[in-house]
């Protein structure tokens, strides 16, 4: 299968490309604008086995040409950081909404299969206390400029399926962790803060809950949906990994031999979603998918080891990211 992977130089996309190449895929093209969040180095282990095209998903002529040469598109490319969206939403509108529109028009013209990668944040948040979880029928209720643009993109995909018969599936996944995640995000930020002698930073009281999944499990689910998913359907991806931020931070500190109170409380995020939780039973029951990384502490230990061993990948990014956070009081 000729596969086009948008955003394949980012965190999840790069791990996806590594996995498909490891399993023998020999016709993979990555389209990535190599923004601050994308990196050629993330694709270094598979450099000779793929084609990397530096370009923007809003470039209709380029997208049209690459889609015409493909059998399927897996669409990861997006602006992804909530704090950046709060500071400057415009790039999120452009990449996430216009970019997805551009991909949709190309797959429509060429009859190419699309899998659109989205987030659980489109559903808004859940109360902190309670057992409620997001399902495929939870109403969309996004809170942030980031999640509202992802929701808009999902709506475009649904409309293009219904109106034009585009052959697409959508997945909405919870919080990923693992290798190659940008140091602006919660888990790598705290690990690399410790590794650079900084104190970890916790927004507010740390009571907010995220539903953590290892990136390889997210990607195995995407591949299962691409192979066996029902066209037009939305699948929620999650691995039952709910934890509050304070607990995650304390686990990181313990695994890195630090005092559990060795961190700073910083200014909370505006509109901070309280809790996400995924009910992935459609995916497990209908497609037989199961996560493999079910021991969160083990996954976190391996992730810490990866950041220790790969300082050359993240060190050039760290000072700029921390300077930006400092300006925001975070
Ligand atoms: P990331 O920020 O690490 O990577 C995004 C990639 O997209 C980068 O390589 C960047 O250069 C590229 N990109 C951005 N705008 C582009 C444009 N206009 N044209 C071409 N390339 C562009 O993001 P990630 O965490 O790997 O997320 C990938 C996808 O998964 C996103 O769609 C995101 O919404 C979704 N998602 C992420 C998570 C998570 O926890 N990280 C969870 C659920 C869903
Ligand atoms: O739920 C899926 C989403 O997960 C994806 O769609 C997003 O692209 C991805 O960035 C992630 O969004 P979050 O906002 O949940 O992730 P982030 O890593 O930014 O923050 C996780 C939690 O940790 C959140 O409650 C905010 C908090 N936090 C974050 C940072 C960076 C801190 O307490 N301190 C920090 O320094």
Automatic annotation (TrEMBL):
KW Lyase (keyword) present: yes
Lyase listed as a keyword: yes
Stretches assigned to the NAD(P)-binding domain: 4-302
Cofactor: NAD(+)
Catalytic activity, as annotated: dTDP-alpha-D-glucose = dTDP-4-dehydro-6-deoxy-alpha-D-glucose + H2O
Residue stretches in coiled coil: none
Annotated InterPro entries: dTDP_Gluc_deHydtase, NAD(P)-bd_dom, NAD(P)-bd_dom_sf
EC class (word): lyase
Gene Ontology molecular function terms on file: dTDP-glucose 4,6-dehydratase activity
EC number from the UniProt entry: 4.2.1.46
Superkingdom, taxonomy of origin: Bacteria
Assigned keywords, A-Z: Lyase, NAD
GO annotation, biological process: nucleotide-sugar metabolic process
NCBIfam families referenced in this protein's UniProt entry, alphabetically: dTDP_gluc_dehyt
Family from the record: Belongs to the NAD(P)-dependent epimerase/dehydratase family. dTDP-glucose dehydratase subfamily.
Name under which the protein is recorded: dTDP-glucose 4,6-dehydratase
């Amino acid at each position: 299968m000729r596969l086009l992977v948008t955003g394949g130089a980012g965190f999840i996309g790069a791990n996806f490309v590594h996995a498909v190449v490891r399993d023998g895929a020999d016709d993979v093209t990555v389209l990535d604008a190599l923004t601050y969040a994308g990196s050629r180095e993330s694709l270094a282990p598979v450099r000779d086995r793929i084609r990397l095209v530096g370009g923007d998903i809003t470039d209709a002529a380029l997208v049209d040409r690459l889609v015409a040469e493909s059998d399927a598109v897996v669409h990861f490319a997006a602006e992804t950081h909530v704090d950046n969206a709060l500071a400057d939403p415009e790039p999120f509108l452009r990449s996430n909404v216009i970019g997805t529109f551009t991909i949709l028009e190309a797959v429509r013209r060429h009859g190419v299969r699309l899998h659109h990668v989205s987030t659980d944040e489109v559903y808004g948040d859940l109360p902190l206390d309670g057992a409620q979880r997001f399902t495929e029928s939870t109403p969309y209720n996004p809170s942030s400029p980031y999640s509202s643009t992802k929701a808009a993109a999902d709506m475009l995909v649904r409309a293009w399926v219904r109106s034009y018969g585009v052959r697409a599936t959508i997945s909405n996944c919870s919080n990923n962790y693992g290798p190659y995640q940008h140091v602006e995000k919660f888990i790598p930020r705290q690990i690399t803060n410790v590794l650079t002698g900084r104190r970890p930073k916790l927004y507010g009281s740390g009571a907010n809950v995220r539903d953590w999944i290892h990136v390889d499990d997210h990607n195995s689910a995407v591949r299962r949906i691409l192979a066996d998913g029902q066209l037009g359907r939305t699948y929620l991806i999650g691995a039952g990994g709910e934890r509050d931020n304070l607990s995650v931070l304390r686990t990181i500190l313990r695994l890195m031999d630090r005092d559990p109170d060795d961190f700073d409380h910083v200014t909370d995020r505006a509109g901070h979603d309280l809790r996400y939780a995924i009910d992935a039973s459609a995916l497990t029951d209908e497609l037989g998918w199961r996560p493999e990384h079910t021991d969160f502490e083990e996954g976190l230990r391996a992730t810490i080891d990866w950041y220790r061993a790969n300082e050359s990948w993240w060190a050039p990014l760290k000072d700029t990211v921390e300077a930006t956070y400092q300006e925001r009081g975070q």
